[in-house]
Amino acid sequence: MEKGCVLSKSAAVLLGVFFVVVVVAVGLLAGLVGRETCEVEKESGSAAVSVVPTDGAATPTPYPPGPWDNVRLPLSLQPETYDVLLKIDLENFVFSGHVEILMLCNSSATEVIIHSNKLNISKVTFTDDDGSTRDITDFWFHMPNQFLVVPTGKALREGQMYKLYVEFVGPLKDDLAGLYLSQYAGPNGDPIYLATTQMQPTDARKAFPCFDEPAFKANFTTTIVHKSGLSALSNMPIIRNETNQPEVGWTKAVFQPTVRMPTYLLAFIVCDFGYIELTTENGHTLRVWGRKEAIDSGAAAYALDIGNRSLTYLEQYYDVGYPLPKSDMVAVPDFAAGAMENWGLIIYRETALLYNPATDAQSNKKRVATVVVHELAHQWFGNLVTNQWWDDLWLNEGFATYVESFGTGVVEPTWQMKDQFVIDDLQSVFQPDGLGNSHPIYVPVNHPDEINEIFDAISYAKGGSLIYMMVDFLGENTFRKGLTLYLNALAYRNAFHDDLWRYLTEGAKLDNKDGDLPGNNVKTVMDTWTLQMGYPVLSVVTSGNQYAVTQKHFLYDYTANVTDKYGDLGYKWHVPLTYSQGTANLNTPLRQWMAPDDETVTLQSVSPNANWILVNIDQKNYYRVNYDADNWNKLKDALMANHMVFKKTDRAGLIDNTFSFARSGDLNITVALDMTKYLAAELDYVPWSAAVGSLAYLTIMLERSKVYGMFKDYYMTRVQNLYEHYGWADQMDDQLNTFAQVTAIGRYCRLGNETCIDEAKRKFDQWKSEADPDTNNPIEADFKTSVYCNAVRYGKVDDYDFVWDRYRYSTNAAEQSKLLLALGCNREPWILSRHLDRCLNSKEVRRQDIRSCIQYVMQNEYGRSLGWDFVRAKWTELQETLGGFSSLSRLIATASEAFNTEFQLQELIDFAAKHPNAGSATRAIEQAIEKTKANIRWMNDNEEVIYNWLQQNM
């Protein structure tokens, strides 16, 4: 994320004089340019615009003490309405406009403080409570906190209304933040430009001056001036289009006022897109927009269908109507996140909204469905009721993550989404949350870097997993009653997580279930899960016909000092125990609570003849379970005898737990390896996905070890039956079977099976022989990733070049993603080095795909070191390019994933010392150091043990 800059007064004056000459000479911004927060420049195509400071009072240096010293806005003023006008010029890559803010004074103040970032302010006026208006010329900027400070000349009176009017101009840059520039190739290859937005979490201030915090909700009236012939979109429907502008060829689009909402949900688009539409069962207009070529190809049809069914279902689920007259869903070519839930104007990456069944895989269809449901879930959870501050981000994202799985499972019931949730979210977030450098889902944040840092798996996947657990112990009907109470009570307002607990408890009371909860309320339980990081491991020890259960904080590295982190709850939890003795209660599990101060909980035997016990049935609860050696052996034997007696989620849980305990030192690695023996008979995707995830750790740890050859051969024997069962035959749109098949092909080829590799190369060569490979691709959509990757991996330079050309010429974003992944599969260092340079060239790879492009190289054992060297060498440039959200964090996590030597640890420590201000990647670097230390210990403890086990079991 770009930051502001501070100039001394003398430097500002000299620089201002110089740039005034430039502005006059260029003539681009005459009459509009004033003082701004910071110099900004933009070059796009052949045009260039500089937005520069002019003369006037300089920002004071140093800053005088005042309320602007706090990174949070003062509460003295509350915005009630905004009137925003933007003129968006896609020819000169600049926007200009004004905003008028009607404000209520809550407490006396002598200045208005609002956010502004990278905007050039040319005029400020203030209207007093008596209606008198005056120009303000002594406004100034507090750069570190991105504040525009407007002195009012006298004390404002509590309870009175005031107006602030600001004129501004800013550059349209391709930086994916605020109001920004995107482009795509037209039919003749020339670039077509569009303007779009991404305001969350702190970039509305980059589009217009505003109170840019979620608690400052207001009503917005938006007007967009744009070149005629284009479409203008915003959160609400257009009232009218005015074409009789003073400038010929321009149109003014005036939109209906919004409902009360925060700045981060405001959105604007000016584009040359097409769309398809329908009217939902409850009378809402639903449209899907995108490049005309994509719309004409039918790629928007599935999103419109899933959006229609999901929106209607969610209105029933929440028992609260969708409050807007329309919802536009727009696929833009350049977007930093997967999608953004702007109220009434949801913006997506093309891969998250467009699906063409003729060319795209089942995984692409699943992504479109889950992202659409996720964003529509936000229209209530996040939009109607908004978190008070970003420390409760999980209230938005955790709930939407849960609903994306649950809701998609309702509208696509054959996909078994609750089973997929276990591997997609629960097990995936167990990994980062088992680190000593994790964080609670409710975590203090202030600076924009800190806010961006928590757009991570903890806020999303852990938040969703905890909600899944709540649904299980409250019951679905009780949970829904609580949600409806919450949404109705706090509609158009802000919430703290305690509000959710209160209304869920009210729902439990309505169903006479509150007495079943510890402390008779949800808060007592959930505070232990939200206010401290991590999760428990339950140890179950058999004693006759009883089972003793204890809990402790699970850590991959128990030497990590976490005692004083995040509160004083002692890393103990209120744990909802669900269990079955043998198969008797797998469908209707027994239930019991464990309190934080319970040293031991005893589970009574209800099936004395049962051979084993299983805790956390169906993996609905957020904890791991370890057993004594005897029970592990019995579970392993039961799997070997007939693995189908266990639910597929529980098979996945057994695999994930044993390998995780082997990493933490809670269990011998041989127990986990013994568990894999049954995989030779496993055909279901869910447990296989868990196995692939668990064995991936061994693969990257051992790839440079003497053990790797034997390990790879053993792994191949586990996959062989899965591969031979599914082969390359069409699975007839059965999603889970298709995913199992893709897993088998991907693993078997990656492990070096020649039959698999030869078939992949045969399919690839058939494609290469096509006269027009960009139009005709005979490779089945679900196999493309494996075929492309193996062709590049085992092929020649011209195979890489062929894929690169297809990447450059493709207009299908899903296809481009597969091709980009394949390009990182090459084994030649010089090709990978050239490819990394291309990753960071915006003319070669879209800015939104830079992080993935580099990651794909680092996920290749031949590219790990090259990628790490590249990240270190280009770190400053990467910070400037990928500063928002979690892109930098993901790069660090991938770069260090295989680190397991003292030398690599020292490289990380040196990198951290060299870059103490790593912004949103700070926590990721700390976690990488912690994981590397744990990896070193794991190698020391397990390499020889694995070697001996393989010698005995091959």
Quick summary of this structure?
This protein is α+β, with helices and mostly antiparallel strands and 954 residues long.
Molecular structure report:
The strands form 9 sheets. Strands 1, 4, 5, 7, 8, 11, 14, 16 and 17 form a 9-stranded mixed beta sheet that branches. Strands 19-20-21-23-22 form a 5-stranded mixed beta sheet. It is α+β, with helices and mostly antiparallel strands. Residues 1-57 have low confidence and may be disordered. A hairpin with a 2-residue loop joins strand 2 and strand 3 (47-51). Helix content is 41%, strand content 20%. It has 28 helices and 32 strands. It has 6 domains: 9-272, Sandwich (Immunoglobulin-like); 367-530, Orthogonal Bundle (Neutral Protease, domain 2); 536-635, Immunoglobulin-like (Sandwich); 636-752, TorD-like (Orthogonal Bundle), CATH 1.10.3480; 754-826; 851-954. It is globular.
Features of this protein?
954 residues, alpha+beta, Immunoglobulin-like, Neutral Protease, domain 2, 32 strands, globular, hydrolase, transmembrane helix
Topology:
Layout: H1 9-26, E1 35-36, E2 40-44, E3 47-51, E4 77-89, E5 94-105, E6 111-115, E7 120-127, E8 133-135, E9 140-142, E10 147-151, E11 161-171, E12 178-185, E13 191-198, E14 219-227, E15 231-234, E16 238-242, E17 250-255, E18 268-271, E19 274-279, E20 285-290, H2 292-296, H3 301-318, E21 326-332, E22 339-340, E23 345-349, H4 362-378, E24 385-387, H5 393-411, H6 417-433, H7 448-453, H8 457-474, H9 476-489, E25 493-495, H10 497-510, H11 522-530, E26 536-543, E27 546-553, E28 575-581, E29 590-594, E30 601-604, E31 613-615, E32 624-627, H12 629-642, H13 648-664, H14 669-675, H15 685-702, H16 708-726, H17 735-750, H18 754-768, H19 784-794, H20 797-809, H21 813-823, H22 829-839, H23 850-858, H24 864-873, H25 875-881, H26 887-895, H27 902-914, H28 922-953
Parallel strand pairs: 4-14, 20-21, 21-23, 24-25, 26-32
Antiparallel strand pairs: 1-7, 2-3, 4-5, 5-11, 6-10, 7-8, 7-11, 9-10, 12-13, 14-17, 15-18, 16-17, 19-20, 22-23, 26-27, 27-30, 28-29, 28-31
Helix pairs in contact: 3-4, 3-5, 4-5, 5-6, 5-8, 6-8, 6-13, 6-15, 8-9, 9-10, 13-14, 13-15, 15-17, 16-17, 17-18, 18-19, 19-21, 20-21, 21-23, 23-24, 23-26, 26-28, 27-28
